[in-house]
Amino acid sequence: MRLLGLEAKLDLERELAEIESGNLVRWLTALPPNRLTAASYRELLAHLAEHNDWNMRFLDRAALGRLGAGAFLAVAQGNAGNDAGIAHLSWRPKGRSRPDVSLVGKGIIFDTGGTNLKPFRAMLDMHQDMCGSAVALGVLLAITRLRLPLAVDCWLAITENRLSPQSYKSRDVVSAACGTTIEVIHTDAEGRMALADTLVLAARERPALLIDYATLTGQCINALTDRYSGVFTNRRELEPLLVTAGRRSGERVWPFPMDEDFDEELKSSVADVAQCSVENEGDHILAARFLRKFVPEKTPWIHVDLSSAARKKGLGHVPAGPTGFGVRLTLALLTDHASELAQVTGIAGDLR
Ligand SMILES: [Zn+2]
Known about the structure:
Structural class: alpha/beta
CATH architecture: 3-Layer(aba) Sandwich
CATH superfamily: Zn peptidases
Number of strands: 13
Shape: globular
Helix content: 25-40%
Largest sheet: 8 strands, mixed
Bound molecules: zinc ion
């Protein structure tokens, strides 16, 4: 289709895939937390998997215990029920096995802050803390709809972060699936705990590119407002591609530093790494440095801190509330920048 005044041809199929996937993200993010529970989320994923020819397995708490995923389990142990876990969905075009892209999402159904309980206003909208998982799912759906020749894995870390006698505490020391030990500092920094194990499991399948999405830090909103999201990567060459893909798609992102000396703030005297710093200064950068410890250096990795996951006054074409931010950005990166991306990551080349 061609519209008057528009130079490029309008790719209606792409528009429809982005709209459907973006709306899925917005709907899931808006759902009340007693309706979108870990159990009902799992059921919904099974339903979507059946209708879209995705493989699905769900690593429940017992399975994660066998894998030694103590960081995720530290967060999940405060839940009333036993339905938390990591969902693994996969989409494979014609007999391919190794994933081109692995999408990881933070799916905190409701974040009370845990033992370090949040005050009322800060907790009010914490049913939206699962947004990163919805974005990962939305990207998988869009890729499936467009039949892009990409093998995709999708890993969703689904749990609540609750206050209970079983909740994890400051100064607990837990061990992630890779064996790295973590000293807990603040139980409200649960997202990076849940993601640490999820990244370890996702990276074991040796994806050409690993992307995670998370409503991770308040500091990222302080730094960028809710008009932009923050991006962090272990491949500096990807930064200009991300910025351009953001402008092109209307989902703007800005890269932050990832220098090694930030790790001084994450030193622990009792574990390999501290979960966060006590001072919270530059927490969005420290969170990214923390996550990087769970991604092998050989795996090209992008971390998206979704500071623009929701915006009262709306953002771009979205009038209000959850924005669905992340789907268009990722599609722009994977398709409009496919050849540049291939040079850095070894992901399949021309997708257009
Ligand atoms: Zn939190």
